[in-house]
Design goal:
Residues 150-308 form the N-acetyltransferase domain. The protein is α+β, with helices and mostly antiparallel strands. It contains ten helices and nine strands. The protein folds into two domains: 17-141, Arc Repressor Mutant, subunit A; 151-306, Gcn5-related N-acetyltransferase (GNAT) (Aminopeptidase).
């Protein structure tokens, strides 16, 4: 395995240790109740489902069926759970909490809310916000096993600043480009906003798993009939999902729909992945010039696509 993989594993394990310690999940009894953590989870499922069968609880919690069966037996012996035959399937036993069971769940719920409330209230508001945002993200990540899919949308408030910020961060990390690159991107998005013409310009944000993972802009060029493709980028962890191709195809299709005859773009040779996308879409290099940009010795390229063909 790679060192990055080892680092990722260590990060998640460290989170698990911190989380279980801070919430007291390793205590013999959960939240000062007479229940272990697994028993408390079974009790929760019984309280929040209508006449479940044991198999439902097994699936919901991912526990061993024998473990759930033993827990239900203990609950029944303690007068917390009652069973009855299912009218639809005589071999299935429908489960429900007794009055004592509902009282036990109510006490557990009260204690759990109180302990978690104390934990978050002790945090500074900045850290509380970070914690809750991270908790929502973690919950969303593990909610299903469906791979994330990218979609395109139009611009929303905050997107222009995010495009400039993310491109500044990514290109500095990957290519060592200085702040003048971020400033250039900021100038481009500001100009796009100032001069925006819905009959000539457009922009797309690629989104996956609820966050921005890329962008592309279409703007009117300096010569009649020509448009420019600008500010294409894809987040590093979204590469390989077809995001770049999706963005380029959307930009080319829109340029055609608006009646442009040519679509031009500027790039530098070091951006090899983007250049492959342009080549695949039919763009051709029409100009190449060595230059000094962003604190680096680079080679400028102008690519063009004939939209009238």
């Amino acid at each position: 395995m790679t060192s990055q993989h080892d680092h990722d594993v260590a990060t998640l394990r460290a989170f698990n240790r911190t989380y279980t310690r801070r919430l007291g999940l390793l205590d013999a009894n959960y939240d000062s109740s007479p229940f272990t953590l697994s028993e408390a989870r079974v009790l929760y499922e019984l309280a929040t489902r209508v006449d479940p069968v044991a198999a439902e609880i097994v699936r919901a919690l991912g526990l061993d069926p024998a473990q759930v069966s033993r827990t239900l037996k203990r609950f029944t012996e303690r007068g917390l759970v009652t069973t009855r035959e299912s009218p639809a399937h005589g071999r299935h036993q429908l489960l429900s909490l007794t009055n004592e069971g509902r009282a036990a769940y109510a006490a557990l719920e009260t204690n759990t809310k109180a302990s978690v409330g104390v934990l978050i209230e002790r945090l500074h508001p900045l850290r509380r916000t970070r914690l809750l945002d991270a908790a929502r993200d973690i919950n969303a990540v593990f909610k299903d096993d469906v791979p994330p899919a990218a979609t395109l949308r139009g611009l929303e408030p905050g997107d222009l600043g995010m495009v400039a910020a993310r491109q500044g961060v990514i290109y500095a990390a990957e290519y060592g480009w200085g702040r003048d690159h971020e400033a250039l991107v900021a100038e481009i998005v500001a100009g796009f906003h100032r001069n925006f013409d819905p009959t000539r310009d457009d922009a797309w944000i690629a989104q996956a798993d609820g966050r921005m993972v890329g962008s592309i802009f279409l703007v009117q060029g300096e010569t009649p009939g020509a448009a420019k493709l600008r500010l294409l980028y894809v987040e590093p962890d979204a590469r390989g999902m077809g995001v770049g191709q999706m963005l380029v195809e959307a930009c080319v299709a829109r340029a055609r729909a608006l009646g442009y005859q040519r679509l031009d773009l500027w790039t530098v040779t070091v951006l090899s992945a983007a250049r492959k996308l342009y080549q695949r879409a039919g763009f051709q290099v029409i100009e190449e010039t060595p230059c000094r940009r962003f604190g680096q010795d680079l080679v400028d390229q102008i690519w063009s696509l004939d939209l009238s063909a």
